[in-house]
């Protein structure tokens, strides 16, 4: 969810309760704010001069916590991606008040009415962010992308950069992007297809109000968002390979949906009127989904919910960490303003690329628990927000009937998915089995408790 029109304050009140329920932190402690103010003035030193490189950023228009800037240049048949990452490690010292608070938070938490940042805004939206208002400290990854789309880390260095433009997903034109952008992203996407990757990027759910009624809508990613993600993917893959070869690091892992989850998805597809032949695998289905089509968008959201939670694993001798969605060994390095672990992965990659020892390799043993707890909390918040949105959307429609299908049955009853709007709920079993189509009546919608209740319509 990104935008909300909430004239009756149902969502606003519900979001305040979510913040209270999950005990999300408010303001930063005084010592953290004092330290942030001091380090925000730290001069950029020990950084090479890369201000002559034409870096740009590409993010949502309203974003100010800009982790990444990029430039592209040809190198024979290869393309060089210069990917500048905000140098959080230059400002946040291990053991400092900022560092201790970041270990408590783990990540930034995003709600429709605002975020709970990992670092104080004076840093994440100011001195450390790669805004186009002056020189900024960055760690620049040079990633070589060959004609087949394979990415390799050519070098990493600390550098002073100056972004030339803050481009926005919503308004960017192709002619504003660096030469080679389209070719590079096409190569990365072709390599994904060749690996058998099946990254699902479902549309975001948005709640809007029209003539006093709330509507739950799906907003697909723009072409600029999809293409921009390829740059981060190529960099993270190259970093993961370099760290794996150096026998150190922290890796992002994820398994495939289990067989029972795929069966549930087939029932969901049926409810949405999608043609999914039995011989076709889930990966094959994913590749032909179009987020611009409402039914496709709904099944993409269902696939995301059905996929196992991603995790973090430190390097282990003889093990090859794997991320099923990207079909490769993968790491997170490109969002240190928003994720604690990325700062340490960036520092490790910098050391490895320059033949230096990793300062604290033991940190990768401690990070998984912190990051997985933060991820779990993010997931709980996201589910609570969606539950709230669904309840608000259905408020006032009690007694209405909807077409639905049973997606699975367990000891808690039957899980159903209504076809329009695309809402998931539970209902008493009453002999139902997966795949059953039925007509359900909305008995109640409680935005305060974030619950909806359906029964079988007579």
From TrEMBL:
<dbReference type="Pfam" id="PF18614">
    <property type="entry name" value="RNase_II_C_S1"/>
</dbReference>
<protein>
    <submittedName>
        <fullName>RNB domain-containing ribonuclease</fullName>
    </submittedName>
</protein>
<dbReference type="InterPro" id="IPR050180">
    <property type="entry name" value="RNR_Ribonuclease"/>
</dbReference>
<dbReference type="InterPro" id="IPR040596">
    <property type="entry name" value="RNase_II_C_S1"/>
</dbReference>
<dbReference type="InterPro" id="IPR001900">
    <property type="entry name" value="RNase_II/R"/>
</dbReference>
<dbReference type="Pfam" id="PF00773">
    <property type="entry name" value="RNB"/>
</dbReference>
<feature type="domain" description="RNB">
    <location>
        <begin position="47"/>
        <end position="355"/>
    </location>
</feature>
<dbReference type="InterPro" id="IPR012340">
    <property type="entry name" value="NA-bd_OB-fold"/>
</dbReference>
